[in-house]
Design a protein that fits this description.
27% of the residues lie in helices and 25% in strands. By secondary structure, the chain is an alpha+beta fold. The chain folds into 3 domains: 9-69 and 109-162, no CATH class; 73-107, no CATH class; 192-302, no CATH class. The strands form 4 sheets. Strands 1, 2, 7, 8, 9 and 10 form a 6-stranded antiparallel beta sheet that branches. Strands 11-12-13-14-15 form a 5-stranded antiparallel beta sheet.
Length: 304
């Protein structure tokens, strides 16, 4: 999400995060290292797992991070402030007087001293992230969330709202429990444009094209497409006649998991590591840059 800065984090978080839910602000490290300002802010251009680094004060947000910042007191209160005005006109005449201003009373927020953390997700993908945050309506907490987003914007020029375990929220206009296409409608050539529209409004740009290409293979077998329950960052391609479901990651360079239709919802509600350790899936196919994934998927679906 590329902006210069934001005013209210609540407006952004409310579209992705449930009230009271925890989250992080972060970015994939491969995106971070492309930023030319890393040295300016004292951030390492080498990934250092589990290390935390505090940006040096080289801009307004990083300075506020160490020195604190003044914000309007809540509820808002105005107070009279006496200011002495002194200046010189162009003709050399000196002007000096006192003026009373009605100004909003401000308070100094704590010096947050926020650090960026180097972490890997369960697939080994490198991230730089904030501490765990929470979305609620407490004034100080909302200001902290806003500050951290603006800190990412100043240092990295971008940010993502991600889950505590570093998986992605998927933004969509429809509830995740409903089908991506109209209820019961199967993905095929006639409505594939609707899936593309869903991807364009819901999926990050860099992951969008690979996902559409994988869905293009799946549509040959006319699945119903839903948001996968429980398993974050996955779509469920349901092949009712075959009695199987593909949990397809929205992220590139991940994997496709196949489950039995009869118990796929229960299995997808489990942690991914539990699914892997107990081999609850029928099959797993890693994404590939060549046509190996496509050939394996077609072969597997043709066999069922």
């Amino acid at each position: 999400m590329k902006k210069i800065r934001i005013i209210r984090s609540e407006n952004i978080l409310s579209e992705l995060v449930t009230f009271g839910e925890t989250f992080r602000i972060g970015l994939p490290y491969e995106d971070v290292v492309k930023n030319a300002d890393l040295k300016k802010f004292g951030i390492s251009d080498v990934f250092k797992e589990n290390e935390a680094q505090t940006p040096i004060p080289a801009g307004p947000r990083t300075k506020a991070n160490l020195k604190g910042m003044y914000v309007r007191q809540q509820p808002e209160v105005k107070e009279e402030t006496l200011r002495h005005i002194k200046y010189k006109k162009k003709n050399g005449t000196k002007v000096e007087f006192d003026r009373i201003y009605n100004m909003y009373k401000k308070i100094l927020l704590d010096r947050l001293n926020v650090s960026f953390k180097f972490m890997k997700d369960e697939d080994g993908i490198e991230f730089i992230v904030s501490d765990v945050l929470v979305f609620n309506d407490e004034f100080a907490n909302s200001k902290k969330n806003t500050h951290i987003i603006n800190l990412f914007l100043e240092v990295f020029g971008n940010y993502e709202v991600i889950r505590e375990n570093l998986s992605y929220f998927i933004k969509t206009d429809a509830p995740f429990e409903r089908e991506v296409l109209p209820s019961g409608e199967r993905l095929d050539d006639r409505n594939f444009h609707e899936f593309i529209e869903f991807a364009e409004r819901s999926i990050k740009e860099r992951d969008r094209k690979p996902l559409i290409e994988r869905a293009n293979v799946m549509k040959e077998f006319a699945p119903i497409v839903r948001k996968a329950p429980g398993l974050n960052g996955y779509l469920a391609f349901i092949f009712e006649e075959k009695g199987i479901v593909a949990a397809e990651s929205i992220r590139e360079n991940n994997a496709t998991y196949f489950f039995k239709l009869q118990d796929y919802e229960d299995n997808l509600m489990k942690d991914k590591q539990e699914v892997l350790n107990n081999k609850l899936m029928l099959k797993r196919f890693y994404h590939s840059q060549d046509d190996r994934w496509e050939k394996k998927i077609r072969k597997f679906l043709n066999q069922h």
